[in-house]
Amino acid sequence: MGFFKKHARTILAAFGMLGLVVVGLALLAASFLADLATKIPPTARPSLNPARMGLACEEVELRSEDGFRLTAWWMPSGKQGRAPVVILHGLGASKAHMIDYILFAQEQGNPTLAIDFRGHGGSDPSLTSIGFYESRDAMAAMQFVREKGAGDPVLWGTSMGAVSALLAAARDGSAAGVIADAPFDTYRNTVLHHAKLFYGLSEFPLITLAMPMIESRVRFRVDDVDCLRAAEQIQAPMLLLAGEDDVRMPPAMVRTIYERAAGPKEFWIIPGEGHENRGFGQEFRGKVGQFLRKVSNLRKFGTTSHF
Q1: Around Cβ 124, how many Cβ atoms within 10 Å?
Q2: Cβ–Cβ under 8 Å, residues 127 and 75
Q3: What are the helix and strand counts (H, E) for the chain?
Q4: Residue 216 and residue 88 share a domain
Q5: Is 48 found in the same domain as 34?
Q6: Contact 60, 73 (CB under 8 A)
Q7: Hey, CA dihedral for 187, 118, 142, 290, is it positive or negative?
Q8: Same-domain check for residues 240 and 160
Q9: What is the mean pLDDT of the chain?
Q10: Considering only CA atoms, which of 233, 215, 142, 195 is closest in space to residue 33?
Q11: SS3 167
Q12: Same domain, 259 and 170
């Protein structure tokens, strides 16, 4: 006992120092998680272009409402009365990764615009908000096709692109339709889910510490990225897709968005597929093609009775 009395100050100082080290390490780890959530992962960009595949394609630039320059491909050809389709890629990808989507939309007779989100492809550099600011890019794409006289578009997005499509459609109010493939429900939930899935982390303390860091770095409120709330505000027809084997945005998560959707809606689980990458099999092509035809009929006849 005398030893502890004699060395109490030293022991307390040691424990205090240890506490500071633990807090410092926790903050460092939380900062690392914030980096993962806000920095766009590097990826090889395919050397693909629709023009080399026989499509009439214009390379165009758009400008978001907050001033970001966005590169895009505009393919105006399509059948009369078909709704234009805006193709929205996922995190770390680009419009060049969406060639299969572009080819399919054009085969269906829909005028097509594919964009590079900010921080991706040839667009201006940026951190990512995984949907919040990217939805502004989607709205710039909507404005572009309207100015071209093509009318209100169908937004077709995958993963982050699906989230951006839902947020943009909710804010805009006049989308012809939404195809949301593998969206998450809320930003907060998806960060928690991915931290547990990939790193085995619980919410406290690292995720709790990382959230304000994310908000400070990218300057948005994470709770504003909420696809459940967005779905409640969208009156346009919606097709929600989920890969059967997707562990990142599993079918149960995507279904919660479908259940909250206010307008005509469909939900389909893609057999045998995981996250985002689609094989464009016959059943997939049939489901998406049917939805695009229904949207065009809605434009023509003005009724949702066929959904």
Answers
A1: 15
A2: no
A3: 10, 8
A4: no
A5: no
A6: yes
A7: negative
A8: yes
A9: 89
A10: 195
A11: helix
A12: yes
Token readout for 22 is 């633990």
Q: Is 163 in contact with 90 (CB distance < 8 Å)?
A: no
Tell me: the pLDDT tens digits for 111-150? Answer: 999 999 999 999 999 999 999 999 999 999 999 999 999 9
Record the tokens describing residue 71, joined without a space: 């590169």
Question: Which tokens hold the place of 231?
Answer: 């779905």
Work out the pLDDT band at 22, boundaries 50, 70, 90: very low
Give a yes or no: residue 173 inside a domain: yes
CATH number at residue 162: 3.40.50.1820
C-alpha to C-alpha distance for 8 and 219, rounded to whole angstroms: 45
- Count of structural domains within the chain: 2
C-alpha distances (whole Å) from 33 to each of 29, 171, 185, 198 are 6, 29, 20, 11
Question: Is residue 164 domain-resident?
Answer: yes
Give the integer Cα–Cα distance in Å for 292 and 299. Answer: 11
Of the chain, the end-to-end C-alpha distance in Å amounts to: 80
* Distances 65 to 47, 62, 136, 142, 143 between C-alpha atoms, Å: 29, 10, 7, 12, 10
